[in-house]
Amino acid sequence: MTINAPPLPTLPIQLLLTMGSWLSWPFALQCAKSALPPLNIGLKNPLLNATAKQAKEFEAALQEEAKNRASSLLSGIYRYVESPYQRTIKEAPVIWQKGNARLLDYGVHAKASANQPVVLFIPSLINRYYILDLEEERSLLRFLADQDVYPLVLDWGKPGDFEREFGCGDYVTEILNPAIDFIHTAAQQKITLAGYCMGGILALAAARLRPKLLAGLALFATPWDFYCKEFSPFIIDQHWMGSIEAMIESQQELPADVIHSLFYLTDPWIFEQKFRKFSNLQPESRAAKDFIALERWVNDGVPMTANVAKDCLLGWAQNNSLMKQKWKVGGKTIDPAAIRLPSLFAIPKNDHVVPFDCAITLRNSMRGSQVIHPGAGHVGMIVGTSAKRELWMPFAEWAHTIHQG
Question: How confident is the model at residue 13 (pLDDT cuts 50, 70, 90)?
């Protein structure tokens, strides 16, 4: 079989965890019969009073359900792997580069106008930029160009020799800020920053360091308070921190596979659910094509440098250094309250990657900021069926409003 799709980076661990949960049903069944932990939690347990025949029928049904789920999961994975789909959308021209980072000019598609707001999009360091330009009909960047907005996007690329020792702050001072300077000089006007997920944190730092060059700041699903209740299972005991830090320092970079596995832990069932659902789609349907396009992006991850991993996984996630205002970039503490720019927040209420409570604390610390709440989740708000109505158009209108003063 020819594999046309990129491999699923965490397929082994995802299959192991999913299959393990299904294959553990005999143990769970015995616990239910005997009211043993972990199932003796006070819930009504019909198996305690079931007849032998009823218990046997239930056991057979449970076994059949596990088999059916495994079959549909493997069918979905097989269909994804053998799909001939290729992303053929033409990339925007590169107008500036530093290290492995490139500035892509989507403004070449914009209508000619002397009064266009210029917007620089800043994606995460660990996911490719083209979620903002996934397909012709699902491209926030191309949509904005049609709305008389001049969009650019920073493609971070993969860490090379220049970025090898970078932490998150270095990406701001050594790449993002010089890109802002370049755009400001070329456009001869203030620009708006739009950061997505982790990119929003970097955008916030740049806004703290370059406020006079900016017209506004938009933050989409940007994490901030990692001690919110949804993240509590991922807080590591302090005595493990030294070992984890030593492990990270022993490597030049943290592979994309490992990073992808960490995101999997935020919603362990999503892997099973999405591929089982995909297995039931018509192969030539729009929904099937959309699934494959998005899954290719998900699996096209970027590694972290060791210092970025320490910043994100230890400083931000474990020590909550953002919320505690202990993260400094360019010698300045990144304090959201010190940023006086017009700001727009897009905070989904159904986000399994950046929970609502993690993001809303950032918005609440910035006076006068506006907020919208897309109905879709972390990725759906960017490329989903309601994205144009719930995010693209409101953002375009806001960009024009602040540009006009």
Answer: low
Nearest residue to 150 via CA among 196, 206, 104, 181: 104
Judged by average pLDDT, the poorest of 31-40, 131-140, 361-370 is 31-40
As a whole number of angstroms, the distance between CA 188 and CA 399 comes to 17
Helix/strand/coil for 250: coil
Q: Which two tokens stand for residue 64?
A: 């059949």
The model's pLDDT over 49-65, given as tens digits with 9 standing for 90+, comes to 667 787 788 778 877 88
CATH number at residue 200: 3.40.50.1820
Residues β-bridged to residue 80: none
Domain count, the chain: 1
The rounded distance, in Å, linking the Cα atoms of 177 and 168 is 13
- DSSP label at 182? H
Residue type, position 133, single letter: D
In this prediction the pTM is 0.86
188 pLDDT above the threshold of 70: yes
- Give the closest residue to 127 by CA, choosing from 271, 295, 376: 295
* Inside any domain, residue 41: no
Domain containing 184 equals 94-229+303-403
